[in-house]
Design brief:
The protein is an alpha+beta fold and 79 residues long. Helix content is 42%, strand content 11%. It has one domain. A hairpin with a 3-residue loop joins strand 1 and strand 2.
C-alpha cells in the first residue's frame, strides 16, 4: 500500500461473492438488486436470503467445499 494512502477498515476487507452479498444486504437492504422484465424485482436482502437458501439446500444434498457443481439452465421467463 502506498504511504500516501490511508487504509480504512471498511475498504480493507477482501470481497468474495459470499461476503459481497452479505455486505450489500446490510448496506442496501431494501434497494433493488435484480430487475427482470416489468414485474420481478428483488431487494438486496431478498437476493441474499435466496442465495443462503440455495447454499443450504446444496449442503443438504451433500455438496461441500471444493466440490464441482455444474448447472445447466435454459433461460426461462420467470426467476
Amino acid at each position: 500500500m502506498s504511504k500516501d494512502l490511508v487504509e480504512y477498515r471498511r475498504d480493507s476487507a477482501l470481497l468474495s461473492p459470499i461476503n459481497f452479498l452479505e455486505r450489500a444486504a446490510t448496506a442496501y437492504g431494501d434497494n433493488i438488486s435484480i430487475i427482470y422484465n416489468d414485474h420481478v424485482r428483488f431487494s438486496w436482502t431478498q437476493t441474499y436470503e435466496r442465495c443462503v437458501k440455495l447454499a443450504s439446500a446444496l449442503v443438504h444434498l451433500g455438496i461441500s467445499h471444493n466440490d464441482i457443481l455444474y448447472i445447466y439452465s435454459i433461460r426461462a421467463s420467470g426467476i
